[in-house]
Amino acid sequence: MGLRDEVGVTRVNRKSYPGFGFDVNRSWLMGTSGNFYVGLGFGLKRLRGTSDADFEPRFIPTFGIVNVGIAF
């Protein structure tokens, strides 16, 4: 299980907001040679400058539902 910091820009309702947050994720290497990657994750991001009437929440969830790949 891992914890990752997150900083970046999030686009909501045609507006961009800077934000920061965290992700908690779990990763597995699978297969006979151990190079098939599967990862799941969830986190929260706090958006700055969201006092607009267009977008009220200051915190939004972030999901890494399923990430798959090949490890070298």
Tell me what the structure shows.
This protein has one domain (2-70). The chain is built from no helices and 4 strands. It has strands spanning 2-12, 15-30, 36-47, 59-70. A 4-stranded antiparallel β-sheet has the order 1-2-3-4, with no helix packed on it. The mean pLDDT is 82.
Helix content: under 10%
Low-confidence stretches: none
- Biggest sheet strand order reads 1-2-3-4
Q: What is the domain tally?
A: 1
Main beta-sheet annotation: 4 strands, antiparallel
- Give the radius of gyration: 16 Å
Structural class: mainly beta
> Beta-strand level of the residues, as a percent range?
over 45%
Which features would summarize this protein structure in a list?
72 residues, 4 strands, elongated, mainly beta
How is this fold's topology laid out?
Layout: E1 2-12, E2 15-30, E3 36-47, E4 59-70
Antiparallel strand pairs: 1-2, 2-3, 3-4
Summarize the structure.
By secondary structure, the chain is mostly beta strands.
